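Batch job 17 of 40 flagged for manual review because the log was empty.
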Amino acid sequence: MLEYYQGIKTAIDAIGDLKSRYTISVYDSKNDSLVLKRILRRAALKDMDLIIGPTEQAQVRIAAAFAKKHEIFLWSPVTVINSSSSNPYLFNMNPSAHMQAKEFIRFFKQHQKNKKLVIVRTNSRFDRSFGKALIQELKVDGTIAYQVINSDRGWQWATYLTAQENVVLHTAEDTQTVNTAVTALMAHKDKVQLVGNAKWLEFNSVDYSFWTQLGVHIISSDQAELDNAQSLSVRKAYRSQFNGDPSSFA
């Protein structure tokens, strides 16, 4: 939460340049529900216009109930609360798996039209969240040709790929499984584009020349475009204050 607070501080300075002013109060719940409840009993909390945090799901629900009762907007900065629609004062600052899936479908139809989508399921955390949500949303959409297969080292990729163009979305989060798939797909590189998840950006043993040839795309909700003017401005401001690069939380 410290990095998130540092990001807020950076943003507030930028807002200040627009002649806007805010009073920020900081409370430490120590990631303890009892401490959080004591904080929420303070008279000052009822006069807030906005509450940001906490981060743990059970505590977000406690704070959300308080926010709804007192009609105060609450931002959940990290944890996604799927039942937020029943509370008009609670906002998820991270997109849910279904929201990301809908955005993927929109992107696919705009940029990958008429290609076959092959979804490789691996029972990874990414698969159980985004993979599951994507399949559900694809069924609702009904306009994209797709096939769902389970990860298996003994695959013959030609069995699942069309003779034209294909997009392979691989849900694995471990280096070995991804490298095995990348190596095998190189035999079909002229008709395959590979899509992975942000966990891949943490890998060390990667042949990026293979990634380039497969046109690897990464699905992520918290990666900044480094050549974006606003991203550069934020990075510069953050560095000047905190002597380091902003994390995804910041």
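Reviewer: the log was empty due to a logging misconfiguration, but the result itself is present. The longest strand covers residues 116-121. Unflagging and moving on to job 18.
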